[in-house]
Amino acid sequence: MSDQPLGIFDSGVGGLTVTREIVKVLPGENIIYFGDTLHRPYGSKSLKNIRYYTEYIARYLLEERGCKALIIACNIASIAGQKTVENKYSRPIMGPVEAGVREAMKMTRNNRVGVVATSGTAESGVYQKLMSSMNGQVQVFAKGAPCFVSFVENGVFTGKAVQAAAEKYLGSFKGTEIDTLILGCTHFPYLQEVIQKVVGPDINLIFPGLTMALDLKATLSQKGLLRESTKAGDREFLVSDLKSLFPGFIKYGEKFLGMGSLFFKEESIY
Amino acid sequence: MSDQPLGIFDSGVGGLTVTREIVKVLPGENIIYFGDTLHRPYGSKSLKNIRYYTEYIARYLLEERGCKALIIACNIASIAGQKTVENKYSRPIMGPVEAGVREAMKMTRNNRVGVVATSGTAESGVYQKLMSSMNGQVQVFAKGAPCFVSFVENGVFTGKAVQAAAEKYLGSFKGTEIDTLILGCTHFPYLQEVIQKVVGPDINLIFPGLTMALDLKATLSQKGLLRESTKAGDREFLVSDLKSLFPGFIKYGEKFLGMGSLFFKEESIY
Lengths: 270, 270
Hints:
The structure is a homodimer of 270-residue chains.
Chain A: E1 6-10, H1 16-25, E2 31-35, H2 47-64, E3 69-72, H3 75-88, E4 93-94, H4 96-107, E5 112-117, H5 119-124, H6 126-134, E6 139-144, H7 148-153, H8 160-170, E7 180-183, H9 192-199, E8 204-206, H10 208-222, E9 235-239, H11 247-257, E10 264-266
Parallel strand pairs in A: 1-2, 1-3, 2-9, 3-4, 5-6, 5-7, 7-8, 9-10
């Protein structure tokens, strides 16, 4: 079973930022990445529809491909469908929300935490609820940044348009005195440079990817599922619509991620 | 049959710019508008997948709802699926490409025409092919502007981010000496102000909507399908995912379009 791949999925290429951390922490693992480019962006869709896609992809990765664990990299997919998937399968299922929250609670000094995410995640109230349940003192400010995903999928990580959008979306954190900002969307680490510049150097940016990778390692180890190999594992990158994967992204994404060549194939699972 | 509604569809709210022109030219017609917000944006998807959605929505509007004519407002849906739909149904089916091209050929003085569209439409080569077949002298320059649709769907029609994106996308027309620019995506008329400012006042912008509405009137009249009513027709606005319809769009869209209240309902056709 330890040779079976890890299944990682996202609405598009955002989950590659999580994959990068998993590859660093668990280099020997075989990986199947699935980007649902046919249905991206998820961030604005109804939870009912996102749950349907999440269950569909989980079935493909866990049943058809026999993945030993499932990493739901996408925040809104985890919010919409992780519980249903956990109830159906006994294999480890992981999402980014808890990891991000745990990390933020460790980092904040003044108990004022911001979350920037897609509209769906920001409006879901999930981050707010989870943080309040862990610490009644914490104040959470969540803000949607709907156009960020579109920039990333197009391979636009910096420049005037991103800068203007970041100023527009992040401007509302002014006056909140947050000292910690969770990037509640797997696409946003690509925009880290611009985001950090706009919010200023005193605010800690939280990417759940590394915490997720460390949690995953602990879980696999505990269940005897670690693949202890000195050779790098196989990595397969799949998308549901190859045309929707922009050459612009591949060009800049490969450089940004540093995981080597991103060779994507289309897999018609729907 | 003349009381039967017109069916108009688009990937989202872009087709409302065409609907506005149809309402002006044919105020007595009953209209069912369908925005496939669950699957937007279409512009980057493979033609195979867009064809599937186009056929599905055509079946809903023409068979289930008995529409007397179908207006495919979305450029890429018309490119991907109009022929298949025309082969299946004997009712009038209209798309924006031919209307835009005819209008541009009338307007250009120097036979240099630009097309700004979604990546899918720009790369399809359809505008280039159609114009060359009509006039061997014409030179066509097509350019994709992938983030424009996302701005519009979010209700962002002006401002710094749109301006920066417009400069980036439209900058490549510099040096081409075009005197006419086709907006080859129904979403782009919402950004008319910024687009005109960036390309300068000497370039004619072509919106196919009005030409489509006049063509439609002629076709309906010829087939005895015109609804000659002194009262305004009924208008029904449907989307496949209500959550994906942004309050921001409704707020600014109603004002921009001036067709009165846009009350959208979700219709699960898939």
